[in-house]
Amino acid sequence: MQVSLKKWVASGSPWVWLNAGAVAISVVLVLGLLGVIASRGLVHFWPASLQEYQYTDSQDMKMPVLGERVQREQVTAEQIRNAGLSVPEGMQILDRQLIKVGNRELYGSDFRWVLEHQLSDLQYPKHAVALERREWGNFYGYIVGIKENGQLIAEQEPGQNQLWDEVLRRTERAGEIYQRIQSLEGGAIGALNYELEKLRIAERSLQLKDQDTPQNLAELQAEKTLLQADYAIQEAELMALYTPFKRDTLLLVTADGQHKEVNFSEVVRLYQPNSLSLWQKMQHYVLKLVEFVSDDPREANTEGGIFPAIFGTVLMVMIMSLIVTPFGVIAAVYLREYASQGLMTRIIRIAVNNLAGVPSIVYGVFGLGFFVYFIGGNLDQLFYAPALPAPTFGTPGLLWASLTLALLTLPVVIVATEEGLSRIPRSVREGSLALGATKFETLMRVVIPMASPAMMTGVILAVARAAGEVAPLMLVGVVKLAPNLPLDINAPFLHLERKFMHLGFHIYDVGFQSPNVEAARPLVYATALMLVVVIAVLNLTAIGIRNRLREKFRALDM
Amino acid sequence: MQDISSLLEQELNSPRMRTRRKFRAWKDRFARRAIALGGLSVIVAITLIFFYLLYEVMPLFKSASIEQESSFELPESVRADKILTMFTEEQNEIAALLTESGKLLFINAQNGQPVSEQQLPLMDAAISSIKVKTPGDDTLLLGLNNGQALAVATTFKVDFDAQGQRLGVKPQVTQLFNGKPLQLDSQQRPLHYITQQTAPDGVLLAGLVDKGEVVMVLLRQRSNFITGEVQETLEPIVFPSTSLYQRVLIAPDHHYIFALRSSGHLDVYDSRDLQNIQLSHTLALVKPGQQVTQMIFQLAQQSLLIGDSQGQITQYFMVRDEHNQQQLTKIRTLKLADAPIKVLEAEQRRKGFVAVDSRGRVGLFNTTAEKTAIDQPLLDAEPLLAALAPRASMLLMQDAQGVFHRYAIDNPHPETSLKSLWGKVWYEGYSEPQYTWQSSSASNDFEPKFSLTPLAFGTLKAAFYAMLLSVPLAVCGAMYTAYFMAPAVRRKIKPVIELMEALPTVILGFFAGLFLAPFMETHLPGVFAVLLIIPLGIVTFAFAWAQLPDRIRDLIPEGWHVVVLVPLVVLLGWLSFSLSQPMELWFFNGDMRNWLSNDLGIDFDQRNAMVVGFAMGFAVIPTIYSIAEDALFGVPKSLSHGSLALGATPWQTLVRVVLPTASPGIFSAVMIGMGRAVGETMIVLMATGNTPVMNANIFEGMRTLAANIAVEMGESALGSSHYRILFLAALVLFLFTFVVNTLADLVRQRLRNKYSTL
């Protein structure tokens, strides 16, 4: 033995090692969390194989089960028994699986826990089909036929595959029509609706101002008639698309023999996971990933993409930084360069510093009471009276959310900028003043450029904090599903009064308010990953800008 | 040379340069003012938060006010008849007066001008009694001197014309009981007291005849499914006692009958079964020699309010005693003055009431808050008539001279007092005073329970469990990082841990709620094993490491231990959790959760304080770690070098020299971490069940102030008490964190000064 236990303990080594352990645990926790989120979030888009089992239930009834294995874990038999299920004597630890069986309208729920000892005859049927639908979640089964206009035009035995190419062709066709319907509804018809609403408010505004003379009204009416005629044309075009859209129907059968007809218009995507090659799986993965970041959510946010949430988060953070940067910098410049450095300034400095530690929900409460109800309510009375009683700014929205977060992050920017200003040596300022520059010129040409990396640091910290903050947003403008993006083609393009979606709130909403948490779970992980990525990207961009500024003003640095 | 300098001078004094200089000076002055204005307004905007919160909270603690609005006399034309009772409507525009001759007279509640009138069909009988006003039952029930009961309902409708212009309030009178008086006493004696209560299948009526004998009937109402016609049958009910009573009240669904004797004793009858009414118990309401002057139901008709001859109003309701018997129990007493209470009327929306004594003193009370909102001598003597408006915003009284006085009442937040916000309150239907938060319910006559104590407790509970995890980890980690770690490792490790701070808490919350909570539930023994196995494993490993030959040990230089420990920690963690199920089988019969609740009697929620402590501890670690590390690292090296030179081991130096010097910094780190844990919203919102319970059980959840705001702010009405109390919660959070942070800041500044002198 090299060291005796007694001597080793006396040296204090165990304590040192335990302290090192604390660091190791913290590191493991951080990396573990990020690892779990990344792995679970990224795996979601990979096309999982479809497994088919014979499931023997407690009454010895056998039935086939087809689905994706989601999770596998061990439980003690006692826990299962306490949950009210029967387990044969002699078993102590059981393996169980969570299988996504899909077909919600037939089975009542998409997921099913099964105990592994009740499963047998595992196989991967080559031609089992996974169908992503616009409603009711996924469908797993076998293709048995195609109908066109209600007429059966082709048939096959379950498990055969001669119809596959035809099915793909028809899915693609329906998909193309769907694209056209979408662009028509979102583009032309949406714009017309917006115009009509504007006319309605204009009319109401005339009434309020007592200028609703027949002449004025007639002008509005003429415009309205024009728009309505336009609307009728667009609507007819849209209606004409719907009939071919709904032409084809797919006949399917589930693993346990139930028949089901699915219209092609309902199909988002269909594939045979067990016969995909690795390359095809990768293609599928990329497609799903692109859909996730660029598409609208479906099915109460549990399927589809999160584009509006990403967009909302980034837009809100950008507006917030536009507000917070000038104000934060002005306040810091005032405190450091202009205010007399007395007790009062010290108190203000400590107060500002500590406001950064005030809980964010408090800012949310303030934002709701002051910005939304007080300022927004008065703005509505003054400028948006024609739209009342529907509030314009008197309700939570993008502007108020940005303002609230700007207030929340103001202390961060002020503190960072002040620190940057205080680091600039006196000699530099005095040099500039000695050359005859005024104080303001010194400030603008010398001091602020030199302090700009510190300012950027402040803004970075502010952005990082704002992007992840959810609690105040729940009160001042975030919604689970916004019908329109706050930025669109209708003037004035940026709609500050609109409510918006946010990644963080999306996580909370889908993970905790959704009726089908199990189905939403992988999406929540993916969204969380996305949020981490957005924050990282925002941070990295800002850090990049800071480094370039640092590079640029290096000559001034000393 | 001379040339150039004079040229320069000339040039500098040229008009162009002069204007330029002026402009520059002007710009400088302008910038100075603009920046001062901008800077100050930003600072004002920030401090506005505090003042705005205060501004929203203040009305809660503002006392109520009552002001006379007008006085009027009735016009001659309608003055002849004696008025028996008076009531008003929602809009405070019309008052209804019932005269002795059975005429309902509607007058303008502002000036007394008659609006309309309606004769009730008394059929040669005279009115001998009127039902006392009861919140939730606005039928006008009259007892007649021939033993009959007559009921009318008065509704008030706001009328609009075709253009949507408001015309005014229009009263409408409909007679109930299929339009006929009802024979309450079969012997046709005059009823000198009358009351009613809705029963599951009709209406139960009771009256007093002769010297105080009780007569009762049940009016069964059956509506025909097809025609919608209501069929009514009258069924006499035998009252079991022949005692003489002064007043009778029937509890909702005739669970109980409260009958008051002239001696001030109240008999409580169990009348669930109307065929078998039994005396349950008797209670003396007043001391001998005193009288009960008024007896009414409060809103929801669960509480009795008893006014006595000493100016006191006492609240009673049924409480289950230790023998599981329902007993009418005295809850609280409110006092107006010393004169007997003459008028007692309950509010129709809130748990409040108005009382007027024989000297004309008026009091407005709230029972939940045990608060006297208004106490003012408004009249010289007992009023002839009094009516409290349905929204309790107006009081109309007729004084002894027959003049009507109208008072406006401003009492927006009667249910809040320091006691009701922070103390134990005995709520209606509860068996004892409790701290409860329950802000809303489906029913209108619900008693809001606004005790912030369970929320404050939940906040501290969550913060406590978070600190339990984070303080040891963060402080120990900081000690190692600052004092033992190699600089190269420190540069890598510190940013990794500080990265946690940038991680949005919503991610931690969702991770805790959706992953950790179910995982911990199924791996409970593993969770506890981790606490034991990881430290033991590390120490054992370290001892084994010390035994290795130097050749191997030197592969890892001093200060790089963490690199070896990371895989070890992963391994030990995996080991603990894979031992979880075997341990569950060996020690807990295979189900630890079941064992906890069945054998130990500890309640278990899936989303509990343990999960919150873990997730929030995780969120707080970087804050504490970063500040504590700075404090430890900043300790002047001369101190530790001196200690080492004297022969102390590095560990002794750390514990005896460095730690005491840096302890204020570590303390302030813990304070700031605590401030963060207290205000954290998303983690608690997602990782607990958000039930406002008050116990420290680690296996149960909690509701914190912050989470409560997030949950309820959206559904509270602008300006309501609930809304303002949520603002109060925000203010409490603001002040708490602000004070804690300021203290921590001051401590740190002193420490910095100390370091600079060392």
CATH superfamily name of the largest domain in chain A? MetI-like
Helix content of chain B: 40-55%
On the 0 to 100 scale, the average pLDDT of chain A is 85
The number of domains of chain A is: 3
The proportion of strand residues of chain A reads: 5-15%
Rg estimate of chain A, integer Å: 31 Å
Strand tally of chain B is 31
What is the mean pLDDT of chain B?
A: 87
* Beta-strand fraction estimate of chain B: 25-35%
Q: Please describe the biggest sheet of chain B, giving its number of strands, its sense, and whether it closes into a barrel.
A: 5 strands, antiparallel
**What's the helix-strand series of chain A?**
HHEEHEHEEEEEHHEEEHEEHHHHHHHHH
CATH topology of the largest domain in chain B: MetI-like fold
Helix content of chain A: 55-70%
What is the highest CATH level, the class of the largest domain in chain A?
Answer: Mainly Alpha
Return the structural class of chain A. alpha+beta
Uncertain regions spanning at least 5 consecutive residues of chain B: none
The quaternary state of the protein chains shown equals: heterodimer
Report the CATH architecture of the largest domain in chain B: Orthogonal Bundle
How many strands of chain A?
13
CATH fold-level label of the largest domain in chain A: MetI-like fold
